[in-house]
Specification:
Number of strands: 13
Strand content: 15-25%
Helix content: 25-40%
CATH architecture of the largest domain: 3-Layer(aba) Sandwich
Structural class: alpha/beta
CATH superfamily of the largest domain: NAD(P)-binding Rossmann-like Domain
Largest sheet: 7 strands, parallel
Length: about 425
């Protein structure tokens, strides 16, 4: 085995969350409780999964930390930006995801996490109206203020490395504009010219993170890092980027169940998906312009798993519909219904119905942890640009569409990509054997 030149996970790792709502506070509270031995990191691949390395008599199954140097949970320091000034304790209480006894057990640490003023433009999330917002003259000024926040947080907390994680709301859909998003120079020019139509606040966060040598993770369906300009920035700064949209409830089911239909060579007539949720995310998505961003992300899953050009008899002209409905009584307890119309031998119809009553933030929190730790690992391993091996954790995987690349949405193919990236960074051979 040839060990790769991966830098050790020494010193403190700063995790700066954009957004200090339900997802971020559930993630942070869970990590703090695990550190105290008060809970278990259930759902986290980096904490529980084991990967086979070696073959034959040399094979063994090892946790990630025994293959590659992953940061220890005790070395993480949390920071955040948010449009609301509540500290992490107050926010966790108001979000009503976690029980009081869990939040109270780490209250002292949560109270100390006070959000910095957010880089925010209400035109991109009309349902939010917070007061903890930066006064930025231009998008470029927004970037400069965010860069200063990162530098100050890193220095004040004695962090050796920083990862920036977007755990905020979905912005309105920003179509890719070649004139603005096609090159880094064009994007920078637009930021300095204060182009508020084509430069979303999330793009300012991503640019600032990369400029300060921090990996950036897009946990919402925003087009933030899905543009050639940001890929160029990641190449220039030699930093990893990952996105987009945490794969939590319905899309997790879809990316795992659609392969059953495809592998079994059954036909698909239609797949109707609808959701109800009542948290801040649901409130924002109740705005049609913001929902469209989510819709584009969720609709992309099936098309790369059940491909009509490969099986025209089975997957031509099937109907795929996705709806999200804001329903306050459910708060963070999302419910997803899927009605799947399939056909089998001689074209005879059948139906599958799935009802997933999930907890959105409970499913998202371990994804946040894994994405943060693995993005930090990738940076120390010298991996930069789009991190395709992190597709396993994301609804709408990043890909270079300018080169005709098709994203991998098949959950089990994504898992092979994840395992092989870990193997390679640990100095082991890539392997596609199913185990």
């Amino acid at each position: 085995m040839e060990k790769k030149n991966v830098k050790p996970a020494s010193g403190k790792l700063g995790v700066m969350c954009v957004g200090l709502g339900a997802v971020a506070t559930t993630f942070i509270t869970g990590v703090l409780m695990v550190r105290k031995g008060l809970s278990k990191p259930v759902g986290s691949m980096t904490q529980y999964d084991k990967i086979r390395v070696g073959k034959g008599e040399n094979q063994k199954y090892l946790p990630y930390k025994e293959i590659v140097p992953i940061a220890d949970l005790n070395d993480i320091v949390f920071g955040a930006w948010d449009v609301f000034p509540e500290n992490a304790y107050q926010s966790a209480v108001h979000c009503e995801v976690l029980k009081e006894k869990d939040i109270e057990s780490v209250k002292d640490e949560l109270v100390r996490i006070v959000p910095m003023k957010a880089a925010f433009d209400r035109n991109f999330a009309k349902r939010l109206d917070g007061s903890n917002v930066k006064d930025a003259a231009t998008r470029w000024d927004m970037v400069e203020q965010l860069r200063e926040d990162i530098r100050r947080f890193k220095a004040e907390n004695n962090c050796e490395r920083i990862v920036v994680l977007w755990a905020a709301s979905t912005e309105i859909y920003v179509p890719v504009c070649e004139e603005v998003h096609g090159t880094l120079a064009a994007l920078e020019k637009a930021m300095k010219a204060d182009d508020r139509e084509h430069v979303a606040p999330s793009m300012c966060y991503a640019y600032a993170a990369l400029a300060e040598g921090a990996p950036f993770i897009m946990g919402a369906p925003n087009t933030t890092v899905d543009i050639p300009a940001m890929w160029e920035m990641a190449e220039k700064t030699k930093m990893p980027i990952a996105g987009k949209d945490f794969k939590t409830g319905q899309t997790l089911v879809k990316s795992g169940f659609a392969p059953i239909i495809g592998t079994r060579c059954l036909g698909l007539s239609g797949w109707f998906s609808t959701n109800i949720l009542g948290n801040r995310d649901g409130l924002v998505l109740d705005e049609p312009a913001n929902f469209h961003t989510k819709e584009v992300s969720k609709l992309s899953t099936l098309e790369s798993i059940l491909e009509p050009e490969k099986q025209p008899d089975l997957y031509t002209d099937y109907y795929h519909k996705v709806r999200i409905n804001y329903y306050p009584p459910r708060n963070d307890n999302k419910e997803g219904w899927d009605n799947i119309d399939i056909f089998g031998w001689m074209g005879y119809p059948m139906q599958i119905k799935i009802n997933f009553l999930c907890r959105d933030s409970i499913l998202a929190a371990p994804l946040c942890l894994d994405l943060v730790l693995l993005s930090d690992l990738a940076a120390r391993a010298g991996r930069y640009g789009i991190q395709r091996f992190l597709s396993f954790f994301l609804k709408s995987p990043m890909h270079d569409y300018t080169q005709g690349e098709v994203p991998v949405n098949h959950l089990f193919q994504q898992y092979v990509m994840l395992k092989n990236a870990i193997r390679e960074m640990g100095g082991y051979e890539a392997d596609e054997t199913i185990d």
